[in-house]
Design goal:
Blueprint: H1 2-15, H2 19-32, H3 40-46, H4 51-60, H5 69-81
Helix pairs in contact: 2-5, 4-5
Length: 83
């Protein structure tokens, strides 16, 4: 029984989306969807390993202004990691 519970817990965490991805989907994707002027793929390429650059960009973005510093940091790290 213990093994079954551990397996269920591990599978729950394995399939959960990172918070940065969820925030991006809810707040940023409307302007940065594939096919837009600056889609997620463009942001990932331009800001690879540069979450600070994304944070600065998000603070001037119309939708980014509505996000907390913590939300912006989570999204920025998620994009910069490219996962």
């Amino acid at each position: 029984m213990r093994y079954l519970m551990a397996l269920l817990l591990m599978s729950t965490f394995t399939f959960a989306k990172p918070p940065g991805e969820v925030i991006f989907q809810n707040s940023c994707e409307r302007c940065h969807a594939e096919g837009s002027k600056k889609p997620l793929s463009y942001l990932r390429q331009k800001y690879r390993s540069n979450p600070q650059g994304i944070m600065e960009l998000a603070k001037v973005c119309p939708w980014g202004k509505n996000l907390s510093d913590m939300e912006i940091e989570l999204v920025s790290r998620w994009i910069a990691e490219g996962k």
